[in-house]
Amino acid sequence: MFTTSRQLLGMDKKLSITRQSGPVYFAHDVEEGRSEVQFTWPVKVDRAALEIAPDGRNLELTFEATKIFGLFGLPGSKKTREYSRLEVTYVDLDMMLCRGDNGTIYVMVQTNSAYRIGDMSSASASRQLS
């Protein structure tokens, strides 16, 4: 819903065509230890392993694979992202507030409680990794 992350929004990119435009969706599957970040433009999905610290407050995402325009699969970039490590400061059934690297802030709101990572029957299957 809101972020101060210039990296997530693509503000660190020189070409405007490669800058993020439109919503960005995060999905975290705590039980399976997986996360997914979906960008609407340019259409891209990043898949990551999710590790939760014993205190339950810190999430660490290790990016493994990327799919662009639903067609081209790439190995995950080892490049550090501002949202690779998130400290959860508040969570309930509908909202999660996090802080990332460089003091970035993330306000995430639940939009689809039925969504499951890798669910190919979803309407957004073209953006997902298989």
Layout of strands and helices, then pairs:
Layout (H helix, E strand, L loop, with lengths): L1 E2 L20 E6 L4 E7 L2 E10 L5 E11 L3 E4 L9 E7 L3 E5 L5 E5 L21
Antiparallel strand pairs: 1-9, 2-3, 3-4, 4-5, 5-6, 5-7, 7-8, 8-9
Structure report:
Strands 1, 2, 3, 4, 5, 6, 7, 8 and 9 form a nine-stranded antiparallel β-sheet that branches. The chain is globular and about 40 Å long. The chain has 130 residues and is mostly beta strands. It has strands at residues 2-3, 24-29, 34-40, 43-52, 58-68, 72-75, 85-91, 95-99, 105-109. It is built from no helices and nine strands. It has one domain (2-110): Beta Barrel (Lipocalin), CATH 2.40.128.
Quick take:
The protein has 130 residues and is mostly beta strands.
| Count of strand segments | 9
Overall structural class, as computed from helix and strand content, comes to mainly beta
Question: Strand-residue fraction?
Answer: 35-45%
Helix count equals: 0
